[in-house]
Amino acid sequence: MIDTYTIVKWIHVSMAIIAVGFNASYAVWLSRAARAPDHQAYVLRGVKILDDRFANPAYGVLLLTGLWMVAISPWEITTFWILTALILYAITVVLAAAIYTPTLRKQISTLESEGSTDAYRRLATRSRVTGIVLGVIVVGIVFLMVTKPTL
Fold first, then answer.
1. Scanning 24, 61, 121, 136, which has the fewest C-beta atoms within 10 Å of its C-beta?
2. Packing angle, helices 118-147 and 80-95, rounded to 10
3. Which pLDDT score, from 0 to 100, does residue 151 have?
4. pLDDT at 134 (0 to 100)
């Protein structure tokens, strides 16, 4: 018999695959678009849709299922790897909401209104750097979840 914890864990892991997988694909799509300027706006809008409709909702489900697993397991929320992952998650949400998403939105509008100007290139650089930082943080969270290190 499969228990509730196992079902919630399966949902949690599935959402991690979706969220991290979509995010990892952005680098591929954006690097390809950089070599095909006629398609940049289309690709940027596509990345925005993938982020808004798939990756970000999956991250929300990750938080809920993670908290649910803590509630029904012997783990405490103050356990090092859980608390550290939650802090990193909060940092990720703030960076994504305050920098990545608004930058991507502005990048799309600038490209569509002005073309590939210096302003657009600055936004693209900010988006790329923020995306890398977010990626590193997310990989750190995955590391904590898989290895469950203790202090």
1. 136
2. 170
3. 81
4. 96
- Token digits of residue 26: 């952005």
Residue in the block written with tokens 């196992």: 6
**Can you read off the two tokens belonging to residue 42?**
């289309």
pTM of the model: 0.91
Residues 67, 116 contacting (CB under 8 angstroms): no
Residue 126 to residue 149: CA distance in whole angstroms: 33
d(CA 52, CA 104) in angstroms, rounded, equals 11
CB 29 within 8 A of CB 47: yes
Number of C-beta neighbours around residue 118 at 10 A: 8
| Concatenated DSSP letters of 108-141 | HHHHHHH-S-HHHHHHHHHHHHHHHHHHHHHHHH
Parts of the chain with a pLDDT under 70: none
